[in-house]
Amino acid sequence: MQTNAKTQQRDSQVTHPNSSGLPVVFYAVALVICALMPGCQNAASDPSYSSLPEVTDSNFQQSVLEADQPVLVVFWAPWCRHCIEMVPILEEVSEQYAGRVRILRIRIDENPATAAKYEIDAPPAFLLFNEGKLFKRRLGKQTQAQLTSLIEKVCTETAWTTVK
């Protein structure tokens, strides 16, 4: 009788309805099915997802060093908490400077040659390139104000050299 009471208690906890009236088991099964179905995992559920373009070791030269505008390269990793926290800030700054400065991301664990070349030991790191040369470098988590200040420096210098 004691075992039966424990079983009933466990079963009532597992199937106890939540605020919408559906049992918790229903949600658990739905999550498992979704996780197993190809394409069901949407980008919004991935905290490292960003609409910013990715650059790699193989296209770094063309995408960054040969670019016709300044490029801010974000060295990041999906396991880096600060990198993930900065995704919305980077996207907002990218929109703010669209057409003047391009912001690209590069995963340090998948592109070790570029990370080593620029001596990136830990993400996040921000390297600003202008006319194929490293212009400025910032390491660690940055605020939106810090990023815009960094970008404004290259925009001001670029405008100044264009006027000369």
Descriptive notes:
Helix content is 45%, strand content 15%. By secondary structure, the protein is an alpha+beta fold. The protein has a domain at 59-162: Glutaredoxin, CATH 3.40.30. Strands 2-1-3-4 form a 4-stranded mixed beta sheet, covered by helices on one side. The longest helix has 20 residues, at 144-163. The relative contact order is 0.13. This is Thioredoxin.
Which properties best describe this structure?
164 residues, alpha+beta, Glutaredoxin, 7 helices, globular, disordered C terminus, transport, membrane
The CATH topology annotation of the domain at 59-162 reads as Glutaredoxin
**Distance from first to last alpha carbon:** 92 Å
The overall pLDDT average reads 80
* Radius of gyration (Å): 23 Å
Q: What's the count of strands? A: 4
Organism: Gimesia chilikensis
GO cellular component, one term: cytosol
Protein name: Thioredoxin
Transmembrane segments: 21-39
Compose a concise summary of this entry.
Helices cover 45% and strands 15% of the residues. With 164 residues, the protein is an alpha+beta fold.
Write the layout of secondary structure elements.
Elements: H1 2-14, H2 24-36, H3 60-65, E1 71-76, H4 81-85, H5 87-96, E2 102-107, H6 112-117, E3 125-130, E4 133-139, H7 144-163
